[in-house]
Amino acid sequence: MSAKIIDGRAIANELRAKVAIEAKLLTRKLGRMPGLAVVLVGDNPASEVYVRNKARLSVDLGMASFEHKLPVTTSEAELLELVLTLSADLKIDGVLVQLPLPKQIDPARILNAISPAKDVDGFTPLNAGKLASGMPALAPCTPLGCVMLVKNVHRSLAGLEAVVVGRSSVVGKPLAQLLLAENATVTIAHSKTKELPAVCRRADLLFVAIGKPELVRGNWIKPGATVIDIGINRVPGPAGKPRVVGDVAFEEAVKVAGAISPVPGGVGPMTVACLLANTLRAAAMRAGLPPPKLD
Ligand code: NDP
Predict the structure, then answer these.
(1) Has 121 been annotated as catalytic?
(2) pLDDT value at residue 203
(3) Predicted TM-score (pTM) of this structure
(4) How many Å lie between the centroid of ligand 1 and the Cα of residue 210?
(5) Which CATH superfamily, name and number, covers 141-268?
(6) Which of 3.40.50.10860, 3.40.50.720, 3.40.50.150, 3.40.640.10 is the CATH number of 31-115?
(7) H helix intervals, the chain
């Protein structure tokens, strides 16, 4: 038996279509387009691609895009000033600072300066705290995308055993909070977890976000489980051309799992779509309007 492949591109396209409809409705209510500001410091080629994609997609979906490209020599004080200005700008609903930042800048200081109401990445301590307390919050985009993927397979996650491997503040921890909110029974595993294969084998829903190419093998997976592979790893491919693989050994896992998200084409496309969804949520919240219908 071969697992159902969870098509992140198709699911992200559906979400984008809903975002475009809701953006139009919100534009009418606000009397302006919802706006996303994206800040890039330096010339990291991967970051440039991400920023370009985010800006292009926001325009495609009917939002205003405000791009700020700063030189690699930008000081922390200069970036802080820009973030505070964008946080106060009434035309802007979401502020995103692309990571990583040059070494002279402390990312925590910058991210903490973003207005929590515009924190569309969901990285500020206030939004992380609200999420952990079960309060309405802007949640990080990758975990939001993971939950959408798994809900494409399971209508309800209530009572299912979910194992999240990885405990970063960007992926693992907020993902565990979102799964708890869906009434899953959640275990968080990490590099100090003992008997990791056995822990993974307990999972009805297995999420892997560790950044270790193909660490999770087929025999770590409970037959029929749903596997969401969040890892993005560049490894040498045939003829020396790099290829991208996940944290799960896909060819083995696909023979055991009930459903699996591939890399690429799984979680990746969801992350950007969820960013735009969060921008709409932020715009609606700031205007005191009900949240847009994106489910
Ligand atoms: P971090 O490096 O911040 O965290 C990695 C986590 O994995 C840590 O909690 C670490 O444990 C754990 N870990 C590392 N090695 C092992 C191991 N051998 N066994 C068990 N746990 C281990 O990474 P991120 O959370 O930022 O990212 C994880 C992966 O997800 C990366 O490949 C990244 O590229 C990808 N990613 C993909 C996104 C997407 O859009 N698809 C978005 C964001 C990330 P400990 O805490 O004990 O050190």
Answers:
(1) yes
(2) 98
(3) 0.97
(4) 3
(5) NAD(P)-binding Rossmann-like Domain (3.40.50.720)
(6) 3.40.50.10860
(7) 8-30, 45-60, 76-88, 107-113, 125-132, 141-151, 172-181, 196-201, 250-253, 267-286
